[in-house]
């Protein structure tokens, strides 16, 4: 009778141990059979009530059963522990052979790259860099440059005036001419390049209220228009390539006399005439001229003994030209998708 019962127990234990899904399951199987109130444990306590013969027989059976249960459960637990460990390792594993994730290293903005390229051209020609404040004294921005109050030329400038009396967001980089002359204190030669921001109150497809200019000023004995033209043509070829043509047109600026603007062949049509150049084949890129005698005087130089030239150029226009960008506003929308196109190193110094 007992034999059959224990045979059933043995099957139960085996089935339960083998079907357990986790260490916790195995623990409750162990508890059910071998715990302090477990079935085998209880049955062993009952042995005392049996006759000597029965006790020996049943005791032996129970011992086998307990050994079987202990042994099986031990093995199952070991197995389960290994399984659980490898399952966990699997979940935590990562492929060490995958390439790493590069942090974005960033790129220089096309305007910065263009500015550096221009600087590089002029540093090689013996110029040095000069800087001035963006919030400028009206005297430096206008009066010293021959633009008196009420002079119609002030209308060309669309100034941003600010809450500081007598101050203005500089409308061009030309005030740096005066500051440089003062700093050079009458010594020769003056040969400076002044890149920086300028501010004007207009905003459309070809103008933004904050833009970049680069100003150049040269003063020495015997500087002539030929020096200006030579410098500008050299710059145009260095920046835009040997095949670009330049043309000079008479113009007007209060601080230069004579004044001229330089055009370069249109990049879109190569001079044939198209929408970009309004059919002329030419695109204007800068204003320039021989420094007005009064401006020299304002800077502390004597126009009887020295002369000079100056020019001011918009950096955005040059950047658009170099990188083939057709809308000025694209440079200021900070669209990384767009800007990252201009990240490759071109092999040119500063770019
Ligand atoms: N300052 C002028 C402008 O912003 C450009 C210029 C600079 C013209 C120097 C002549 C000489 O339009």
How would you characterize the overall build of this protein?
- The structure is a single chain.
- This protein has eleven helices and nine strands.
- Helix 1 packs parallel to helix 4, helix 2 packs antiparallel against helix 4 and helix 5 packs across helix 10.
- By secondary structure, it is an alpha+beta fold.
- Strands 1-4-5-9-8-7-6 form a seven-stranded mixed β-sheet. Strands 2-3 form a two-stranded antiparallel ribbon.
- The protein folds into two domains: 89 residues; 233 residues, BirA Bifunctional Protein, domain 2, CATH 3.30.930.
- The site of phenylalanine has 11 residues, from strand 8 and strand 9.
- Phenylalanine binds next to strand 8 and strand 9.
Strand order of the largest sheet: 1-4-5-9-8-7-6
Work out the helicity level.
Answer: 40-55%
The SSE order reads: HHHHHEEHEHEEHEEEHEHH
Distinct compounds present: phenylalanine
The general outline is rod-shaped
Provide a brief overview of the structure.
With 351 residues, the protein is an alpha+beta fold.
Keywords:
11 helices; 2 domains; 7-stranded mixed β-sheet; two-stranded antiparallel sheet; 351 residues; binds phenylalanine; disordered C terminus
Topology of helices and strands:
Blueprint: H1 2-19, H2 23-34, H3 39-46, H4 52-92, H5 110-124, E1 128-129, E2 135-137, H6 138-141, E3 167-169, H7 175-184, E4 190-199, E5 210-220, H8 225-240, E6 246-253, E7 256-265, E8 282-291, H9 293-298, E9 307-314, H10 315-323, H11 336-339
Parallel strand pairs: 1-4
Antiparallel strand pairs: 2-3, 4-5, 5-9, 6-7, 7-8, 8-9
The chain binds phenylalanine (PHE).
The site of phenylalanine has 11 residues, from strand 8 and strand 9.
């Amino acid at each position: 009778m007992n034999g059959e019962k224990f045979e059933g127990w043995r099957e139960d234990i085996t089935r339960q141990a083998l079907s357990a899904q986790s260490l916790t399951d195995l623990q409750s199987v162990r508890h059910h059979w071998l715990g302090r109130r477990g079935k085998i444990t209880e049955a062993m306590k009952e042995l005392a009530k049996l006759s000597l013969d029965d006790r020996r027989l049943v005791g032996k059976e129970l011992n086998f059963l307990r050994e079987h249960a202990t042994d099986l459960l031990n093995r199952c637990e070991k197995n389960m522990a290994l399984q659980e460990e490898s399952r966990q390792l699997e979940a935590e594993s990562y492929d060490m052979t995958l390439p790493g994730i590069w942090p974005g290293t960033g790129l220089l903005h096309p305007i910065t790259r263009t500015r550096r390229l221009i600087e590089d051209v002029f540093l090689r020609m013996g110029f040095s860099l000069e800087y001035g404040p963006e919030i400028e004294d009206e005297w430096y921005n206008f009066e010293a440059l021959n633009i008196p109050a009420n002079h119609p030329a002030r209308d060309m400038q669309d100034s941003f005036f600010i809450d500081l009396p007598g101050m203005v967001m500089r409308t061009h980089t030309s005030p740096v001419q005066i500051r440089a002359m003062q700093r050079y204190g009458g010594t020769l030669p003056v040969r400076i390049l002044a890149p920086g921001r300028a501010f004007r109150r207009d905003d459309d497809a070809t103008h933004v209220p904050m833009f970049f200019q680069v100003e150049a000023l040269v003063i020495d004995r015997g500087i002539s228009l030929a020096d200006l033209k030579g410098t500008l043509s050299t710059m145009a070829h260095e920046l835009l390539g040997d095949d670009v043509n330049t043309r000079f047109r008479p113009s007007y600026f209060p601080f230069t006399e004579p004044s001229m603007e330089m055009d370069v062949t249109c990049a879109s049509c190569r001079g044939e005439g198209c929408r970009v150049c309004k059919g002329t084949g030419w695109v204007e890129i800068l204003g320039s001229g021989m420094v007005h005698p009064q401006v020299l005087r304002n800077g502390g130089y004597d126009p009887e003994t020295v002369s000079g030239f100056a020019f001011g150029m918009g950096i955005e226009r040059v950047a658009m030209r170099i990188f083939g960008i057709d809308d000025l506003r694209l440079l200021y929308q900070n669209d990384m998708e767009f800007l990252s196109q201009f990240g490759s190193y071109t092999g040119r110094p500063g770019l």
